[in-house]
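Re: the 449-residue chain
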Amino acid sequence: MTDLPLADSSRRLRWSVATAAFQIEGAREEGGRGRSIWDDFVDAPGAVRDGSTAEPGPDSYHRYLDDVELLTQLGVDSYRFSISWVRVQPSGVGAANPEGLAYYDRLVDALLDAGVTPFPTLYHWDLPSTLEGRGGWLDRETAYRFADYSALIADALGDRVTDWYTINEPVSTSLQGYAIGELAPRRQLLFASLPTVHHQLLAHGLSTRILRECGATTIGIVNNHTAVRPASNSAADHEAAFAYDILHNRVFAEPVLLGGYPDLDALGMPPMPVLADDLEIISTTTDVYGLNFYNPTTIAASAPESPVPFEVVPTPGAAHTGFGPEWPIVPSALTEVLVDFQTRYGDRLPPIAIAENGASFAEPDSVTGPIDDVDRIGYLDGHIAAVEDARERGVRIDEYTVWSLLDNFEWAEGFTQRFGLVHVNHATGERTPKASFDWYRTHIQEARS
């Protein structure tokens, strides 16, 4: 698989923006919505940097038509949003909540009326608290509950929605949620968290088969991938980078694309809880591979007494986003990841969609006019060029998605990090497009001409 196949780089790239339910909807206690692990997280004292609870935030549950109008002005081909599991199925089991489904019915219809393709994600981290209480993604049964939930959504929306993502960033859930506790559900299990990888991927495979049976034409999983670079030429740093690449990239991509896990035993890690037919289900053919990219990762060997064999260190000479040195800005690293995927997986790799790409920078909570966010424009311009570079090198990439349409609740960072093309006053919900909104709109228009 060393020779890249010829891809048609003249194929028109589709343009999109993304959001996620918990980050923009608000209305946590309205419409029969249940409780998720992120409700538990934000209600825990000190868990969120600014003490916020995602309320009201953009309040898209009530203001979704404002968002559709913004999408129309932007001129995107599609809109990647997520469906809240607990809004549709409050306890994670049983019948659907009619009020929750009605909200997504209204949103889908409004998008179609506006000429914007709805591209929902079934799971963007809002696991029902009741299922977490039974073990969450450590428990194999959660994969089957997700399959049931997928069937409810497909039955309700499948007559109008044909493009679907199943699960968003299982790497973040497993490594940050269950391994080190930075995200919900705040567990610190280190390598004992690895079963959550397998059960999320199994859930993806089961869901893919259900969506296909319901007539879906485009189905994929979404993962956050990174270019992993050793901090030095030392053997120890190279070994640490190799281990990190397996845990962050390969353990999530290879079961889906190749039908098997990389060798975890060689790294001294526990085996995955694979049962008969699991890998066949996980590697069910998909139509797209959703790839989120934000930054490369520089890895050094950790101290001998550390429970993990690597540590993330600043990338030398790189500017960084509002998240600090661990989020360096290196657009060429995106090209590196894309070419590496094509080289490594060859004809097993479906067309790639850049399902998230964006940057946060310090911005005020309230504004009286558009923010001149030149740093974000520079970030997006550089990474779109990196995508085009990869396409010219033979990688088939069909879609590019900016994270995010709106300033939103940024998980453990609360409202302190702003990724949006549109500024949101989180006290009032007022939306003000930034300079980057106009820049992206113009870029889309010119790309189509």
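The chain has 14 helices and 13 strands.
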